[in-house]
Amino acid sequence: MLAVMRFVDAVPPFELTYDDVFMVPAHSDVPSRFDVDLSTPDGTGATLPIVVANMTAVAGRRMAETTARRGALTVLPQDIPFDVVADVITSVKQKHLVVDTALTLGPTGTVGDALALMTKRAHGAVIVVQDARPVGIVTEADCASTDRFTQLHQVMSPQPFTLTDPVDPVAAFAQLEAARRKLAPVVDAGGRLIGVLTRNGALRATVYQPAVDSTGRLSIAAAVGVNGDVAGKAAALFGAGVDTLVVDTAHGHQQRMIEALKAVRALDPPVPVVAGNVVSAEGTRDLIAAGADVIKVGVGPGAMCTTRMMTGVGRPQFSAVLECSAAAAELGKHVWADGGVRHPRDVALALAAGASSVMIGSWFAGTYESPGDLRTAPDGRLYKESFGMASARAVANRTSAESPFERARKGLFEEGISTGRQFVDPQRPGVEDLIDTIAAGVRSACTYAGATNLAEFHERALIGVQSQSGYAEGRPLYAGW
Questions:
Q1: 126 contacts 137 by C-beta, under 8 angstroms
Q2: What's the CA gap between 61 and 100, in Å, rounded?
Q3: Helix (H, G, I), strand (E, B) or coil at 172
Q4: Are strands 221-224 and 73-76 parallel, antiparallel or unpaired?
Q5: CA 3 to CA 461: how far, in whole Å?
Q6: This prediction's pTM
Q7: Which of 257, 266, 342 is closest to 296 using CA atoms?
C-alpha cells in the first residue's frame, strides 16, 4: 500500500482549501533545511517543485531562463506564435547555467534607454559594451537627477571589475565581497562579455541546482490547446527542443482532451506529457489512460479566475490535490497543483497533499522577469498588468486569426479577469527573490516533518483542520495589537 499524508483526526466530511489546514510538527533528525532535496519525481527533471504557469502575462523568455537556472520549470503559453516559441526555446537553451544574461547598451546609449532596460532583470544594472567588451556599468543611482538624453559614457563607472568564466560561485562571492561590488560583468578569456553575476546570484548557485535537459542545457516547457492540429503542434514543439509538453484546457475532463492526448501519445513523445485541468479521481484516471504522465489539478482557485463565481464549478484546492494525487499514484503517475497559492505555506501544503510540483501564475506576474511593462500607480507603487487565460483579453489574443464576427461572438463569454494589477514587492522585486522565500518555507516544512525529500514529506505530513480564527492566529502582526 502506498504511504500517504495523514490527518490528525478522521478524514473530514467536507472539502478543504489551503487556508483550512495546517501541519503538525513531528520528530525530526534532519539537521538543516539544506539537507532537504526538493527535486521532483515526475520525470520533468526539475530540481525545485515550482512550475511557472502558462499565462501570457507571466511566462516568457526572461522568466523561463531565470527559473530554470534555479531548478524550476516555465511553461510557455499556447497562444504565442510557434516561431516565437521556437525562438524562446533556442534562446533559453543557449543561456549560461550560473551567469545571468546582461542588459547591454553602447557608450552612446542614453540614460533614458538604460532606465527603460533596468526593470527587465532584477540585477539593476546596464553593462556598457564596446566591441563586445564591457567598458562601464550604469546603475539607477548613476542616472538619478540626470537628463534622460545624457549619454552613458558620461555617467557610467568606467573600467569595471570583472570575473572570468568559468566562474566558481564561492570564489566569485569572495571576490565581489573583497571588491565591495554587488555585481560584476563576467567575461571569457578574450575579455568578451558573457553575462553578469551578483553576490546573491553566486550564493544561489550554491543552493539551487539548474533544471537541465539530457545535454546539460536549461529546461523549458510549452503548452498546446485541444483544438486544431494538436499532433502537428506537438511534433513541432518536440522538434524545437521543448522538454515538457502541456496539453491544456480549462475543462480537462472532456472528449477533446482525450482525443488530443491520444494523438500526442501516438507520436511516441520523447518528453513527459502533462494534461489538465481536472479536480477528480475519475478525471485523473481518464487522462492517464489517454496518455498523460502528469495531471494538472485545479479549477477555479487562481487569482485571475472567475470560473467558480460565474459557473459554480470547481473544487477547494487542497481536497482536489489530495484525491487526484492518490489516484495518480496508484497508476504510477503524478500531479501538479495548479493555482490557489498565496503564501509559501500553500506550496508546502500542496506538496504534502501529494503534488509533485506546484504551478504559480499571478504571484510571479509582479516581478521584473514577467513579460509585462512596468507601470506606476497613482500612489507611486510599481505594478504589472495580469489577466486570466479565459478572460476576454486572452480570448481576443488567442483568436486574432479568426474573422471579426467570430472573435466578437466568442468575446461575449469570458471567465477571468482581463486587467488586474500585480504590484512589485520592493523587497522582493525579482522572481528569484520569491523563489528564495518559497524554497525556504518548503525546506523548513520538510524539516518539521522529518523529511529529506518530497516523497518522505508526503508520507510523513500530519495534517489538521482549523477554523478561520485558527488561520488568523498564524498570521504575523506587523503593527502590534
A1: yes
A2: 13
A3: helix
A4: parallel
A5: 11
A6: 0.91
A7: 257
Residue 446: closest CA among 302, 306, 341, 349: 349
What's the grid cell of residue 249?
484546457
The C-alpha cell at 396 is 481576443
Nearest to 161 by CA among 125, 115, 114: 125
Q: What is the DSSP letter of 102?
A: P
Over the stretch 320-361, which tens digit does the pLDDT of each residue have? Answer: 999 999 999 999 999 999 999 999 999 999 999 999 999 999
Q: Is-contact 454 49, C-beta < 8 A?
A: yes
- The per-residue pLDDT for range 462-473, each reduced to its tens digit, is 999 999 999 999
Positions of E strands within 279-338: 294-297, 334-338
Closest CA to 457 of 20, 41, 43: 41
Preceding omega of 77 cis (within 30 degrees of 0) = no
Domains of the chain, residue spans: 6-96+211-473, 104-199
Q: Which class does domain 6-96+211-473 fall in?
A: alpha beta
**Structure confidence at residue 404 (pLDDT):** 79
The Cβ of residue 235 has, within 10 Å, a number of other Cβ atoms equal to: 15
Topology (CATH level 3) of domain 104-199: CBS-domain (3.10.580)
Q: Could you give the angle at which helices 281-290 and 255-265 cross, rounded to 10 degrees? A: 30
What is the H or E stretch that residue 45 is in? Answer: none
Cβ atoms < 10 Å from Cβ of 231: 16
Please confirm, yes or no, whether 305 is among the known catalytic residues. Answer: yes
